[in-house]
Amino acid sequence: MIKQIKLKEYGILIALILIAIILSIATEGVFCSARNLTNLTRQVTDIGILALGMTYVILLAEIDLSVGSVVAVTGVIAATLQVNNFGVLPTVLITLIAGLIIGMWNGFWVAHYKIHSFIITLGMMVIARGLALIIAKGASIGPTSIGFQKIGKSFIEPNITLTLLIIFFSLYLFSILRKRKKRSEHNLENPPIISESFKILAVLILLSLLGWVFCSEKGIPTPVIIWIILAGLGIFILNKVPFGRYLYAIGGNIEAAKLSGIKVKQVKFIVFTISGVLAATSGIILTSRLNGAAPSTLGVMYELDAIASVVIGGTSLLGGVGHITGTIIGTFLIGILSNGMSLMGIPTDWQNIAKGLIIVFAAWFDIRTKGRR
Amino acid sequence: MKRCMEKVNDIILEMKDIVKDFPGVRALDGVNFEAKKGEILALVGENGAGKSTLMKILSGVYPYKTYEGEVIIYGERERFYRTLDAQQKGIAIIHQELNLIPKLSVAENIFLGNERTRFGVIDYEQILVETKRVLKKLGIELDPETKIIDLGIGKQQMVEIAKALRVKAQILILDEPTSALSDKEIKLLFDTLRALKEQGVTSIYISHKLEEVFEISERIVVLRDGKTVGGGDTSKLTIGEVVAMMVGRKIEEMFPKEKPAFKDVLLKVKNFSVDHPFLPGEKVVQDINFEVRAGEVLGIAGLMGSGRSELVTALFGAFPADTSGEIYIRGKKVKIKSPYCAIREGIGLATEDRKQFGLILQMSVKENISIAMLKSLCRFGIIDEIEDRKLTERFVDELKIKTPDIETKVDNLSGGNQQKVILARWLATNPKILILDEPTRGVDVGAKVEIYKIMNELAGEGIAIIMVSSSLPEVLKMSDRILVMKEGELKKELNTIDATQELIMGFATG
């Protein structure tokens, strides 16, 4: 599965790097300053977290249009709880449960009544936005408590950040060595040392880059840490847990999956539930960072950015093919475009046109690399 | 030059030294091929021999420059960049899967994309008149206004042929045209081909079914591993000789049957009925009673639509309609509501349509094999990759699955090897009862024998096998007992010793 998407992933990665270089030159270095990159990373987490769930949904050849509105309604719920002096933990838990229930609702209809998710989640998109407006009585709600604001605004201190990065790299190195040892114990061929070393080197460079970006400022932003953990978990489930394999199987051939004893309904239900919970997570982070929630503007168009990130990242809308690594790159690509164009003073309207073009271009590239069939 | 051409003017098609490479494989390796005007030529070979690839070059699916060699039609070198170019030179291909629009009429389908218009409005009457003329030429009685959806597969195929002839095809390529046809429909098809021959149309007939090839063709060309390995006038060849050319070795025993030793009843089905998925009150399977013992191969014969596949799919909990009756496994009454339950009870089902219901084409050989028993490969909920690999490698080895690597996408394998992957998937679940629906459809001769061998080995290990098959020789040679179904009912249970093809057909149709 991994081999097939490599070329496409590299294509997107190269595009990302090229755009980054162009933006750095165009903004005379402002773009690639540690401060801007830290900001950028924090900005993309909202979409990034939604896109993780969206990857699962699209792998099943489904779609979730409700995530933007779910961000709004969960954000409003969190803000309302905060205004009513709920503690941080109860606020977070209740909001997550709200997201869970919305996700279960979507999953229930899609899985058990086989109604196309486009319709079900389109309905929820409107319902959730309406709920948000009703709960908030049409007005913005805030402020939130200082404790709650920490979720979206705080940083992990530079020295802890550095320690985390070093621990991460050691774990990575350890897991590779362990895998090689186990493979050779079972007489399985190992990938050549050279290519493996290159991979390790690439990870080391990436981590050093992250270390430089985050440590020359205030450390790694807390939401980014949350995103990294969720993404890691997402990748792990896709690769190492039967549930992940089932996603590819169902998206690839739903009939064959059913006949292989996979509980397709259950898997669909869970995936939409995950998407709902992740949308609530994003809603919490966003409300915390903005110190309140505005029901009519919060999370508007987020579903489109999330879908675009997934598709640009190489996940096929037909299901069965794709990966979270691609989605993360896609998220950054979209984030960088917004950020870079804002730095260059390009008005939002033009930014939207550029974003739209990139999405069309990515889809075209997707078809091209797959070949005609 | 001109005189020279006149001398050989009955040769209308030549393909010279055709070489075609795919990443990692040479599909065609210097193939030479020619066809005469008005002949019915059979192109045979095992799956992966290169028949389809060759025909795709001829019909412009693989454009000029993606292959080496020359395509010469009426003495002229042709360069087809797309299928339309080939069509304009009179080459039409009828694919295995038909490309008709079900809700449109016969006439509308035949003239699709080529509507006759007057002042921009479709002249429906003109289309009807022309359709009638084409159908008459083919010797088919068919109302041009019938909707495709109301026609049987055989008639649909005729419509495809009519569509090809409307564009004045001189060379008609038929890729496995009879795989879904009944005997009567096959006869009709053959009559049509002969009528076309009279009109000077050349037919290139691709098929696995050698009996048919010998009935219809005048000349046979055999491909093996991308090379032309032989052939000649059909009247001077025997089936045995052609098979030997196809596989490159003699197949002594097509059906290696080992002596059975039956033990206890593994599966017992009592008064089993299956509702019709759409029509309330109707049943697709009615009051079936049978049992299968450990180590036994039970064959289920019957025509298409006799309820064979519906019966086995319903037993596996995968038929989208209600069932009634009782199922006992090892004497214990069970309820099978879904494939998940069936697998837990030790049943496996390899469906008849591999691509639609079996394989997950984007996934690797490994992932396809372990998908139905993934949970037993887990440690603390995490897939044990080493165990996953070992399992797959064991089956690739045991079933002799030809694949470059277990990470290869299953889409890249030949039909026979894909079928073995499906078998491996079910064997990996350790089934007690294995249901095989058309286990050798679309599988080449060599792999067929291997699949039969595997079935016998499994029976020898005490697995009960239920085999649904349209091939009567296969049913007769492989099964110990035979059930004949007709219109959803069990017509007759036969011991193989007493059964003949005629007897089975009698019960299936009479």
Number of helices of chain B: 18
Q: Give, in order, the helices and strands of chain A.
A: HHHHHHEHHEHHHHHHH
Structural class based on helices, strands and sheet pairing of chain A = mainly alpha
For the record, give the distance between the C-alpha atoms at the N and C termini of chain A, rounded to a whole number.
19 Å
Mean pLDDT of chain A: 90
**Gross geometry of chain B:** globular
Give the strand line-up of the largest sheet of chain B. 6-9-10-3-11-12
Q: Tell me the span between the first and last alpha carbons of chain B.
A: 62 Å
Overall 3D form of chain A: globular
What does this molecule look like?
The complex is a heterodimer of chains A (about 375) and B (about 500). Chain A is mainly alpha-helical and about 375 residues long. Chain A has one domain: ABC transporter involved in vitamin B12 uptake, BtuC. Chain A contains 15 helices and 2 strands. Chain A has a two-stranded antiparallel sheet with strand order 1-2. The longest helix of chain A has 28 residues, at about 160-185. The model of chain A is unreliable at about 1-5 (pLDDT under 50). With about 500 residues, chain B is α/β, with parallel strands linked by helices. Chain B has 4 domains: about 1-90 and about 170-245, P-loop containing nucleotide triphosphate hydrolases (Rossmann fold, 3-Layer(aba) Sandwich); about 100-170, no CATH class; about 260-345 and about 430-445 and about 460-510, Rossmann fold, CATH 3.40.50.300; about 355-430, no CATH class. In chain B, about 35% of the residues lie in helices and about 25% in strands. Chain B contains 18 helices and 24 strands. Chain B has a 6-stranded mixed β-sheet with strand order 6-9-10-3-11-12, with helices on both faces. Chain B is globular, with a radius of gyration of 25 Å. Chain B starts with a helix and ends with a helix. The interface of A and B includes residues 249, 252 and 257 of A.
